């Protein structure tokens, strides 16, 4: 049943993003930004972690999870290190994912040539 809930929740997050693009004049960049902000707001309200526990990868894989990670890391580090922890917490939690994206993008750029 865990797989079903992951599929349903992840699918609903994607449907929300697709509807925002189809029904408004928002660009994909705007929609992505809004989904990150929604994830951050839900984490700030304490609602995103229970969603991850319920849906697993269905909630932790979509872009909303990035907003969750930013706020979660900032709040955890702020408790330990005060106001400076807000900035360091953001970088600490997201650095592995961002570093992986940079490295894999570099290798993709070496292997493929853009058309145009």
Spans of at least 5 consecutive residues whose pLDDT stays below 50 are none
Distance, first to last CA: 46 Å
| Strand percent estimate | under 5%
| Overall average pLDDT | 89
Large-scale geometry: globular
Query: What is the count of DSSP helices, taking H or I runs of 4+ residues?
Result: 6
The helix content is over 70%
Radius of gyration: 16 Å
Strand count, sense and closure of the main sheet? Answer: none
* Global structural class: mainly alpha
Domains counted in the coordinates: how many?
A: 1
The beta-strand count equals 0
Order of helices and strands: HHHHHH
Would you write up a description of this structure?
The protein has 116 residues and is mainly alpha-helical. It has one domain. Helix content is 84%, strand content 0%. It is built from six helices and no strands. It has helices spanning 2-23, 28-44, 48-55, 57-60, 64-81, 83-111. α1 packs across α2, α2 packs across α5 (64-81) and α5 (64-81) packs antiparallel against α6. The mean pLDDT is 89. The chain crosses the membrane at residues 27-47, 54-71, 83-112. This is Stage V sporulation protein AE. Keywords: Membrane, Transmembrane, Transmembrane helix.
């Amino acid at each position: 049943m865990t797989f079903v809930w992951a599929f349903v929740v992840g699918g609903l997050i994607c449907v929300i993003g697709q509807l925002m693009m189809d029904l408004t004049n928002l660009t994909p960049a705007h929609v992505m930004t809004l989904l990150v902000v929604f994830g951050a707001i839900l984490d700030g309200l304490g609602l995103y972690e229970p969603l991850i526990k319920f849906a697993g990868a269905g909630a932790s894989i979509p872009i909303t999870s990035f907003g969750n990670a930013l706020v979660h890391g900032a709040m955890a580090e702020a408790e330990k290190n005060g106001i400076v922890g807000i900035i360091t917490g953001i970088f600490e939690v997201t650095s592995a994912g961002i570093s992986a994206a940079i490295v894999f993008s570099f290798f993709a750029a070496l292997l493929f040539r853009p058309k145009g």
